[in-house]
Amino acid sequence: MRDPKRVGILISGRGSNMRALVEQACHYEVVLVVSNKPAAPGLAWARDHGIATWARDSKGMEREEFDRMVSGILEDHGIGTIALAGFMRILSPWFVRKWPGRIVNIHPSLLPRYRGLDTHARAIAAGDEASGCSVHIVTEELDAGEVLGQSQVRIDKSDTPAALEERVLEAEHRLYPIVLNQFVTR
Ligand code: GRF
User: Fold this and answer.
1) Ligand 1 center from residue 147 Cα (angstroms)
2) What is the torsion angle, in degrees rounded to the nearest 10, for the CA atoms of residue 148, residue 151, residue 157 and residue 160?
3) What is the pLDDT of residues 37-71, one digit of tens each?
């Protein structure tokens, strides 16, 4: 049985959004943290906080082969909602079809603007007055699924991509848990 309130988080790195999701969980429980990078710092934090973890280096593996392994682990843990949090690997169409409407992601821009990478540099270069972050449902098209929530961050004239990234990241940590708490009960 897939229980939407049993959340699995997929990470590749430091996992600051994962941490925010764990600390601000209200209507869901983070049951499992998965990584395609066994050395991801976020994994150690999850383990220290009593959360089950699973990691395997995806390097050199066929995309779908890795995804089938991850999907099996998520099913073994009765996961009903998958939250991507800095998971730097594009999911295979097979995986997205296996979990239709049950995968969410946080993206550091005001979608539909700036899908993909380097969002902060692109927003500054375009002369935008604001950027921000979006939580959206993952579909087969990159960063294109239904937007569930957004948070705006002002861009200052003197902003660098790094400074903007830092402020957007703070907004991510507030937005993602709020949206996920709503999503699991909708
Ligand atoms: C965040 O900027 C998020 O928007 C993007 O990847 C970064 C992950 O950071 N998808 P962290 O691992 O959650 O700290």
Assistant:
1) 17
2) -80
3) 999 999 999 999 999 999 999 999 999 999 999 99
